[in-house]
Write the structure tokens for this entry.
Amino acid sequence: MMLTKLSSKGQLVIPKAIRQALGLRTGTQFHIRVTEGRILLEPITPSPIAALYGKYPDADFLTDLEAEHRREIEHEEAVRP
């Protein structure tokens, strides 16, 4: 068990050992609820898609996929007897 305290701004510091053990990083979101007089914090695990959101703002993946699909169709037509 570790000790932490509430700041004047209502913030709580999660000790480094616990953050590391749970893989918590800056920006991790939590569900918070009160159960039987206790505060329960549950880290939210983002979906893989949500984790990628905004990482590739200049990438045009749809255009790349469409071009690849066109090449596959052209290849299939070329090898068809």
In short: The first strand starts at residue 30 and ends at 35.
